[in-house]
Specification:
Helix content is 35%, strand content 15%. The protein is built from 9 helices and 12 strands. The strands form 5 sheets. A 3-stranded parallel beta sheet has the order 1-2-3. One of its GO terms (molecular function) is glutamate-tRNA ligase activity.
């Protein structure tokens, strides 16, 4: 595979060191970029300041380097890109695609319970402030998803055809939070567009975000990248391995052992003949190419 226009990225939040689950995602995105002979970028998603840990970004960068995963450019930081998010929000407001919301969580809970609207244990916003704040101060900004909005369809390179009715299943979602912080959906779309990201390889838990991000891309006149959502490393409770359910930081006394475990999660053949870390990574790129080709997915498939 060769795509000179390929730009991929790994985008961790600096809430702690990488664990086996985040390494598997990092490895998948790196392998896909190398298999396409494209660029691989590192973005530190540090907009949720309350969850970020001082120094965690440097720890993550060092962990990746220890595993031979070195980005092609200096890492970017979302905390330094607020002016871009503000420009995007202003564009959405001017085009009447975004509106201010004065609802508290209690307001939304009461309105949602009356309509029995809940999804993944999250409240679906019922559109209370679409026609004005009704005397309430503005707390957040939301993207307007009108009820006549058509289903959003896209193709995932691993999961196949996907679709979601964002208006019915999610509702008008937040762009800027009540605490003044930028919402993940807006920040990630703006950054992907600004950095020219052509391919996104990330964990399967984020597949549910894709339709919202495609709607934002369209509203901001940005191209839609090609998506591939990879398997997750699961904890003992059967849920995604995370810091919240006991994920331990990588033991990088043996980086090769960590990479081999990540490779198995991704479905790569064991490379018992690898003599060194660079040798393992080179063989892994070849294995990744075979894995992608065997699934019959084209690197040129784009969302329509």
């Amino acid at each position: 595979m060769h795509d000179s226009n390929y730009i991929g990225r790994f985008a961790p939040s600096p809430t702690g060191p990488l664990h086996p689950g985040s390494l598997a995602t990092a490895l998948a995105s790196w392998l896909d970029a190398r298999a396409h002979k494209g660029q691989w970028l590192l973005r530190i998603e540090d907009i949720d300041t309350a969850r970020c840990i001082a120094g965690a970004d440097q720890t993550i960068i060092k962990q990746l380097a220890c595993c031979g995963l070195i980005p092609d450019q200096a890492p970017s930081y979302q905390s330094q890109r607020g002016h871009l998010y503000n420009q995007a929000l202003e564009h959405l407001i001017e085009s009447k695609a975004a509106y201010p919301c004065g609802c508290s969580r209690k307001d939304i809970a009461q309105a949602s319970s009356a309509q029995s609207r809940e999804r993944h244990a999250e409240l679906i916003y019922p559109g209370t402030c679409r026609d004005g704040l009704h005397g309430k101060p503005a707390r957040a900004w939301r993207l307007l998803c009108p009820s006549n909005l058509e289903k959003t369809h896209w193709h995932d390179r691993r999961l196949g055809h996907q679709s979601q009715d964002v208006a019915a299943e999610v509702g008008d979602f937040v762009l800027k939070r009540a605490d003044g912080l930028w919402a993940y959906q807006l920040a990630v779309v703006v950054d992907d567009g600004a950095q020219g990201i052509s391919h996104i390889v990330r964990g399967q838990d984020l597949a549910d975000n894709t339709a919202r991000q495609i709607l934002l891309q369209r509203a901001l006149n940005l191209p839609t990248p090609i998506y591939r959502h990879v398997p997750l490393v699961l904890g003992e409770n059967g849920e995604k391995l995370s810091k919240q359910n006991g994920a331990q930081a990588l033991d990088l006394r043996s980086p090769l052992t960590c990479l081999q475990a990540a490779g198995r999660v991704l479905g790569l053949a064991d490379q018992t003949t690898a003599s060194s870390l660079p040798d393992w990574l080179a063989k892994a790129v070849t294995n990744w190419e075979s894995l992608v080709c065997n699934q019959g997915q084209s690197s040129h498939e784009r969302t329509t």
